[in-house]
Write a structure and sequence with these properties.
single chain, 124 residues, mainly beta, seven-stranded mixed β-sheet, four-stranded antiparallel β-sheet, 0% helix, 48% strand
């Protein structure tokens, strides 16, 4: 099970930190990622982190503004979002690819487990 938290309403230029806690049959000891989906749009990759080297990967649209990290002891991954823009508004989903510890896939179909999502709204 993956449970996200930390979404909310923020003004443009502000920051939010999303959390994703893994429990039960899920673990962060694989590839973890954040996706987002805005109304009427396809789900898109935002950021990913692998277990083997803790390497992180970002969509071009968020590079330099967002940072993904993990806390192994808490079995939790985070997404720190800074300099938020209205176009960042979406439902954000945490996902786990338990088939891989190193290769970060940027398509939703590559992931086995998903959280329920947390809404982020950025006002202009």
């Amino acid at each position: 099970q993956l449970v996200e938290s930390g979404g909310g309403l923020v003004q443009a230029g502000g920051s939010l930190r999303l959390s994703c806690a893994a429990s039960g049959r899920t673990s962060i000891r694989f590839v973890m990622a954040w996706f987002r989906q805005a109304p009427g749009r396809e789900r898109e990759f935002v950021a990913g982190i692998n277990w083997s080297s803790a390497s992180t990967y970002y969509a071009n649209s968020v590079k330099g503004r967002f940072a993904m990290s993990r806390d192994n002891a808490k079995n939790t991954v985070y997404l720190q979002m800074n300099s938020l823009k209205p176009e960042d508004s979406a439902d954000y989903y945490c996902a786990a690819d338990q088939k891989s510890t190193s290769v970060v896939t940027m398509t939703p179909r590559g992931y086995d487990y998903w959280g329920q999502g947390t809404q982020v709204t950025v006002s202009s």
